[in-house]
Amino acid sequence: MSSSSSLHADKPCILCCAITGSVPTKAANPAVPISISEQVESCQEAVEVGASILHCHVRNDDETPTSDPEKFARLKEELEKHCAGAVIQFSTGGRSGAGDERGGMLPLRPDMASLTVGSNNFPTRVYENPPKLVEWLASEMRKYEITPEIEAFDLSHIIQAAKMHEDGKLYGKLYVQFVMGVKNAMPVDKHVFDFYVETMKRVASDAPWCAAGIGPGQVVVNEWAIAAGGHTRAGLEDNVRLDKENLAPSNAALIKRAADLCEKYDRPVASFAQTREILGLRAI
Question: Are 118 and 157 in contact (CB under 8 A)?
Fold first, then answer.
């Protein structure tokens, strides 16, 4: 046991690696993996230090984001080969495409896919998730037996996700991720975080949850989530730095930092099999 006693000691903690995203470029950090081969190599390193979910975006050769199903298919095939057993999670985010294009890769049947159930502001635009599109994405995930990870940028998204799950509109087990630190959306605020946790207990008491922090908020939110008994996400999509002076050398470095926090709070890092059991995913 570490010197820091935890109320949630011995509870496995799922670490999700946000590999690439749609925004960070090699100009911001040369370690950002863009090509399929770079992403796979980065994932292998992250898995070795504890990542069990791989949150996937794909890029064009010029680093611009895309929802190209062929690129997702190649990435999935390579990850299944080189990170066998890891949970593969596709992004249906709005920066990579518009409308139904955002779900064009779902017929590939990844284990999970991200789903945002409402709109909110981003740094320079509105992240639009109109009800009709949300319903369609959710229905495609049900059709292909894909468990959504709800990306909650606002309190209303948690409430809406719980209602959709109760109404049978979401496939599988409810899993909600709090996203904190996006400019013009929900800040990294401990009072808000605590209220999110209490809200999950109230509206979906049996549902596991996760939290992600953007930029310098990443390590802060990692620690809050681990200490509170949740799961957490790290990676170059959300944060390209270790601190003000140093760029993160890899996705693995950010996952390792989260794994070290798990040790601080006496929480084992979840294995692939444990992650699948916690989230009700198909066994490996």
Answer: yes
Q: How do residues 156-193 score in pLDDT, each as one tens digit?
A: 999 999 999 999 999 999 999 999 999 999 999 999 99
Structure tokens at 263: 């040790």
* Most distant CA atoms of the chain, gap in Å: 50
Residue 190: CB atoms within 10 A of its CB come to 11
3-state secondary structure 46-57: HHHCCCCEEEEC
Query: What are the backbone angles phi and psi of residue 2, rounded to the nearest 5°?
Result: -80, 175
Contact 115, 150 (CB under 8 A): yes
The span from the CA of 86 to the CA of 16, in Å, is 10
- Confirm whether pTM is higher than 0.85: yes
Residue 148 has pLDDT above 90, yes or no: yes
Beta strands 120-121 and 126-127, pairing class? antiparallel
- What domains appear along the chain, each with residue ranges and CATH number? 15-279 (3.20.20.70)
